[in-house]
Batch of 2 targets.
Target 1
Amino acid sequence: MKIIVLNEKEMKNIMNMKDAIRAVKEASSNYSKGKTDIPLRANLNVKEYNGNSLYMYGYVPDSKALGVKLVSVYPDNPKKGVSACPATMILENAETGEVNAIMDGTYLTRLRTGALSGAATDLLAKKDSKVFTLIGTGGQAECQLEAILAVRDIEEVRVYSRNIENVKKFIERVSKGKHQRFVACNSSDEAVDGADIITAVTVSNDPVFDGKKVKKGCHINGVGSYTPEMSEIDEHIVCNSNVIIVDTMDGTINETGDFLKPMKKGLFKKEMIIGELGDLVDGKCSGRKSDNDITFFETTGSAVFDLVTGQKIYELANSKSMGQIIEI
Ligand SMILES: NC(=O)c1ccc[n+]([C@@H]2O[C@H](COP(=O)([O-])OP(=O)(O)OC[C@H]3O[C@@H](n4cnc5c(N)ncnc54)[C@H](O)[C@@H]3O)[C@@H](O)[C@H]2O)c1
């Protein structure tokens, strides 16, 4: 059996953000049409080492994508000099069940999560959007930035996080070779004032910006919240946006505090969500109707996006003879 092994650097050379956005649109469309088999994530507790091993697996027939992403959550790892959340994607040949590829699951997650915001922004944000605000400068942030730059002609990028020194370091790292003006913001008010697009990608349990300060016509991506306790998007946005789209209905409605908290107060109903990203891709629901509409996209992620994006990376690597090959 011949297996292609791909690290982050090789994956970056193989697939750019525009290709990744196309891949997640294909994944979303298949998911929303019910043409995927994505079981609930399996979870093993490894209590001896204070760890959890998660298995995100599934099958997307139209994309010939079959496999599993192994994600481990080991909070004590940093003390050992190891990532607290190592991840690896394993893809199989759908025709034979043999393993085709092993790739860096951490980078794959960042790429496909950025691509999800990119796809939603492409379909929902005003075409002439110029000012982008990024809130959060952690592991996911750079791909979130790349995704917005891939779909709109952005002139100014504003970055805000809890720690201004981290913001400055982030800007120094990601702005190299880019023509946009980067601004390190001292407050979220400063960051969102006049912004055309806002992406929140934080681990916060409370809103990270004041929704009432958001200008009409803005598009917002909520990426970080994936538990009932976490919520980074102001209720004002969640309850008053003209268009709300989610990556997967089941995931978002059951997992994210962005929806669950206002729902508990009776301020938000599932019916206020217009549809899934796949419905929007396929024209089954409408997006923005006017330049004054506020549009909101919420993502909690799903194995379907890893599978299809990973499969496309594998196919490109195979056709270009890239990556390391191992035989077992
Ligand atoms: N939707 C998806 O598919 C998907 C995929 C991967 C990760 N995520 C989630 O995205 C979130 C971010 O991931 P990461 O790897 O970048 O995390 P990280 O821990 O590396 O970074 C978190 C960032 O949030 C910032 N932050 C926290 N509280 C804040 C606040 N109140 N105001 C402003 N900034 C604040 C921190 O300063 C930091 O920059 C996590 O919750 C993660 O689980 C979602």
Target 2
Amino acid sequence: MPATTRPALLLDRDGVINVDRGFVSRVENFSWMPGIFDVARTAVRLGVPLVVVTNQTGIGRGSYTEDDYQAVTAFMRERFEREGAALTAVYHCPFHPEAVEARYRAADHPWRKPRPGMLLAARDDLGLDLAASAMLGDKALDLLAGHAAGVGALGLVGKADVSFEGAPKFERFPDLSGVPAWLERRFAV
Ligand SMILES: [Mg+2]
């Protein structure tokens, strides 16, 4: 296991990297969120690796296949590379309690956000300091997963209602334009 020293920017996919149209399983349906590459390049310039953590229950539900998902992921990674902000790792959780295929069926899989399993796997694989890291999502489950993993700074993109009792503290961004300055504040040395 690598030494746990470096922070990361953990990114949800749908609603942060691409517009969330529900089950985006083909490149043709993948629309970049405005400003995502500014966010990514800012993190990389600050020496902060980019790690995607995405629930992909559509695989378990049988809406699309693992291969469909991997094709979209390859397209996504290639574009981040071309933009000068390569993704260090991409984690996805295909599991769902009512999955069609038995191998994807799990009542409460530890990788499925709001559980923190993907973030903890990234920590162990990449040697991340989660307390020094930031996470950007568009739903309460992203904040909850980040909070459960001990991520030090949580950002929420868009309008999701997270006013429930016990919601973790987070910073709200109506769109991605305010995120680079947030990263500068968080990660500038
Ligand atoms: Mg999302």
